[in-house]
Queue: 3 jobs
Job 1
Amino acid sequence: MATKILKYTFAIFLILVLIVLLRAYLHQPDAYQAKISEPIIFDETKSINNLSRSIQFETISHPDYEKFDYDEFQRFLAWLEEEYFQVFKNLEKKYLGETLLLKWKGEDPSLDPILLTGHYDVVPVREDANSIWQEKPFSGKIDDEYVWGRGALDDKSGVIAILEAVDYLLTQDFVPNRTIYLSFGHDEEIGGRRGAGKVAEFLINEGVELEWTLDEGSFLLKDIIPGVNKPVAVINVAEKGSLTIEVIGKAEGGHSSMPSSNSSVGYLAEALLKLEDNPIPGKLEGISLGLFDEVSKQMPFQYKILFANLWLFEPVINSFLSNSPTMNAVIRTTTAPTMLSASNRINVLASEAKGTVNFRLHPRDNPETIVNFVNNLIGNENIEVKKLSSGTLASSVSDWDTDGYRVISNSVREVYGDIIVAPGLMVGGSDSKHYGKAAKNSYRFNPFPLSASELSGLHGIDERIKKEDFLNGIRSYIRIIQSGSI
C-alpha cells in the first residue's frame, strides 16, 4: 500500500514538473517584424546645439510661484519662437501663463486629436553644483558623447526633440490627418497646476476630447531590469498618487537630566521602524503583471519557470521583486520616512516628536486605506497619525491594447530595432495627471535610451544625455507623429 502511494505521489510530482517546464517553454515573446523605413536625415548638429542652448536658460521652478524668474522663462519662450519660426508660422499658438500650447490642424476634423507634451521647467541645483558637477549644470556643454546640464533628461530633451520633429516634418510638407496638439509646461516640477492644469481646463472648455496623450515618463531602459539583456521601452500607462502623513509620538516632556522610561522620540522611533519593517502589501497584478509578463519572456529559462507559473511561484517572485527598490515601487504603495523633528534644545525632552512619512500610492490603494493600515499597524495610544493633506489618488489606468499604444511602441521599434516594449507604472508624477482629464488614454514615455549610470542624473548630479540617443529620440517622435496622425 505504501509503495502504491509513493508511486502515485511520484507520478503526480512528475506531471507537475512537466507542466511547469512546458509552461516555461511556451512563455515566448510574440514574433515582431520591425517595419523597414527610409532613414531620417536632418541637421544633427543644429538639433544638438538647440538642446544645448535650451539648457542654458535657467528655467527653475520653485514651490512658491512668487520666486519664479519669469524673465528667464520669457527669454526661453522668445528663443523658441525665434529658433522654430517655421513651427510658430504654421501652428496656432496660445499661452496659458508661461505654458505654451500649439495646435497643428489636421485635415480630418472628425478624428479626435492627440497631444504630445513635455515640460521645460527644471529642478534647482545645489549651491556648490559648479564645483561638484563634472560640467557646470547650466552650461549645456557638448563633448564627444554627451550634452550636459539640468534638463538634459528631465525634460528639455523631450521639448526640443518634439519641436525638432515637427520642424523636420514641416520641411517635408507633411500635413497630419488628425489634429495634433503640443503642450510645453512651465511648472511640472511643482505639480503643473498653473500650466498643464490650465491647458486641460482650456481643452475641456473647448469641447476637445483627446484620443491619447504622450508625456514624459519612463525611458528605453538599458541594463536596469535584472535578467534582461535587451533594452526595455516601458510605456507607463498610469502614475502613482501621493499621501503625506505626520506620525507624532507623545510623552511627558521635561529636563534631560531626569528622563522617564518612555520618551516621545522613543515612541516615534518604534512607530517608524514598524512602518519600515511592514510595508504596504504588494502584489504582481494589473500593470506590474503586464510589465513582467512581457519582460520575462526575454529572460533566461530559469526565470521563465517562475514567471510562467505564477500560480505556484508568486510568493517567491513578490519577495524577489520587493528586494529591488525600483521593482518594489512597481508592485506596491511605498513608505518613505523623510523628515524628523523633536526638541530644539539638547537638554530638553520633547513632549512631541514628529516624523513625516510620504507614501506613493499604487492604483489599488487610497489615502483612507493607508491611514487605517498605519493606525492598525502602530496600535499605540501614544502615537497620533495626522494627514498633512487630503492626498492624491493614482491616475486611472490607460488601456495598452489600443492604436495609440501601438503607434508609440511600433514607432520606437522602427528606430531602435530589437527591443522589448511593455506597459509600466510611473512611480513619480507628471503633467499627465492633468492632461488625462481631457483624454481617453494617457501614456508616459521618453523615447531616449537610459542606462543605470545615467539614471542618477535625474534630479541629481551630472545630468546628461548621449547625443546619439537624443537624435534617435527625435527620429522616434517623427515616426510617432507620422503614424499617430492617421
Job 2
Amino acid sequence: MGSGKKAGIKKRNRFYGIIKWGCGLLAMLVFFSILQVLSLRYMDPPSLLMAPFRFIAQGLNPQTPEITMHWRTFEQISRHVKRAVLAAEDQRFLTHQGFDFIELNDALKDMASGKGYRGASTITMQVARTVFLWPARTWIRKGLEAYYTVLLELFLTKKRILEVYLNTVDWGKGIRGVGAAAKAYFHVSANSVSKGQAALLAAVLPSPHRWSPAKPNARVLRRQKRILKDMHKMQLPKNHS
C-alpha cells in the first residue's frame, strides 16, 4: 500500500474520530441538560444552580450585591401575585408550549412600524435563562434559552414552572423572588400581598432596577391599573397542568 494511500486512510480515520468524539460530547451535554431540568421537579434552584453563578459574578465584580431569596412554595404565594404576574408577563402561559408566537408576531410588527422594541419572552423562557444561563445577550445564549424552554415544558408542569419563576425573578437590586420582594417593599409575607400590591410588583418587572413598587412613578401606576383590569381573567395552573 502506498504511503499516500496510508496517509489518506489516517486522515479519514482522524476525521471520523473527531466526529465520533463530537457526537459523544453532544450526547453528554444533552443528557446533562435533561438531568438539570428533571432535577427542578424535586429541588429548588437557589442551592442547585444559581449559587455558582452568584459566586462567579461576585468574583468578577466585588460590587455585585448579595442576593436575598426566600423560597416559597406555590401554595405559600398570594393568588393575587400569581394572577398579576400572568396578566403582566404572559397571559397565554397556560395555553402555549413555551413560545408565544402571537406575542412575538405583535412585537415584530411594533418594531417594523417604528413603535419600538418590546420583549416577547414567556415565563418559561425567563425561567430558562434565569436558572440555567448567563446574563449576556448573545445568539448562543438565545439558542440555549430556546432549547431549555422546550425541556422545561416537556418535563415540568405549568404549576412548577410558575413557582420557579416567582421565586427566581429579579425584583430589584439584590432582591430575587416574591418572598424577598414582598418583605423588602411592603413588609409582608408572600401569601399576604394584597391585590394592589401584587399589581405594583408585576408592573415593575420590565425594569425592576429603575422602578420601585414602594415608590411607583406615573408609568408604573398606569401599568398597575392595566394589570388590575386583566387579573380577573387569569386562570391559575392546577397540579396536573
Job 3
Amino acid sequence: MKTSNDIINCRSCIYRNLLYDKLNDKEYGQVNSARTEYIYQRGELIKQEGDKIKSFLYLRVGLVKLFKTDHFGKDHILSINKPGDFISLLSIFSNSTYKYSISALEETHVCEVALPVLKNLVASNGAFALKVLNRMSHISDTIIENSFRINQKQVKGRIAHILLFLADKIYHGHTFRMPITRREVGELISMTTENTIRTLSEFKKDGIISMDGKTISILDYGRLVKVSKSG
C-alpha cells in the first residue's frame, strides 16, 4: 500500500456526482482535507473483517472483492466491486467494525474520507443525507438482486451470469482477462472449483467462449445470454 496524489481536489474526480454534488464549497473543502487516496496491488488486503471502521471508502480505480471467511477458513465472496462503488457505505452507520474483508483484485486506488467528517455532513446537510440514503438503498438492492438471480440458477447458468457480468459491467467488451481465479469464481457463485473448471471447459468445447490462460473471449454472446436465463 502507498499513498497517491492523482486527485488534488474532490471536484476533479469523475465520480463526485455520485455522492458529493449536494455539497457547497466549504463542505467540499472539509471532505478534501479529510481524504487520503491509497494504492493497493493485487492480493493486498484493504480491510480485514473485524477492523475498526474509521473512514468512508470509495473505489476510484481497479477492482476489489468483498468476502467473509467461515470458521473452516473458507472464503465466500460477497461481491466484486468496480470504480465508482462505495465499498463501505452499508457498514459505516450501523457497525463499529467491518463485517467482511476487502481485497484488491488488481492495482486499485481507494479514497478514504475520515468518518467523523462524513457523519457531520450527513447531520448538517439534508440533501446530502438523502443522497447517501439513496446510494445505500441502491447498493442493498443490487446485492439482493444479484444474490437472488444466482441462487435461482444451476451451475451453467451461474457461470454464464458471471461471464456476462464481467463482460457487460466491468470490462465493457467480449474479451477480457479474468480478474479472479477459478476457485474465486466458485466462491462467488457458491460452487466447487471442479464444477467451475468443468463448466468453463464445456463452454469452450461448445464454441461459446475461448480461453487462453486467464484471457476469455465470448464467441457466442447470444447463446451465453440464453444459458444464463435458462440455467
